[in-house]
Design a protein that fits this description.
Layout lengths: L1 E3 L17 E3 L4 H5 L6 E5 L15 E5 L9 E6 L2 E8 L4 E3 L8 E2 L6 E11 L6 H4 L1
Antiparallel strand pairs: 1-2, 3-4, 4-9, 5-6, 5-9, 6-7, 7-8
């Protein structure tokens, strides 16, 4: 994979020749973004409740089932038959949004709940992808 290092700052007036700064990396985007291929799946974020941690509506979530869930990880869970992306508070047994105005979801013992994986990466598409729109 070729990577162009573009130092960007406010007030950019131009770039030097990008070709002069090519660096060859011995990896692919798959290798960069997915650590455990057999335990990783991709989801799509819906809604605004996780914008406080940089996850916006339509973002692509890379979810890893292999990594150990830690307190305050961003997770995807199945709560009462519905998939949710939230911050897990293991000590208080609740799911928390990253935006004000959303009440926490208390994880009750009598409600079906499974953690589907930890969100390890999120990707924002700035143009529509024909693969994702299908």
């Amino acid at each position: 994979m070729n990577v162009i290092l573009l130092p960007a700052s406010a007030g950019i007036t131009g770039f030097s020749s990008p070709a002069a700064d090519y660096h060859q990396l011995p990896l692919s985007l798959d290798e960069l973004l997915v650590e455990h291929p057999s335990a990783t799946y991709i989801g799509r974020a819906q809604g605004t409740s996780m914008e406080g941690v940089g996850i916006f509506d339509g973002d692509i979530l890379i979810i890893d089932r292999h990594v150990q869930v830690r307190d305050h990880d961003i997770i995807v869970a199945n709560y009462n038959g519905e998939f949710v992306c939230k911050i897990i508070d293991l000590r208080q047994r609740r799911l928390v949004s990253a935006q004000a105005g959303y009440a926490p979801i208390w994880i009750a013992a009598d409600v079906p709940f499974t953690i589907e994986g930890v969100v390890v990466r999120s990707i924002r598409c700035h143009r529509p992808s024909r693969l994702l729109e299908a």
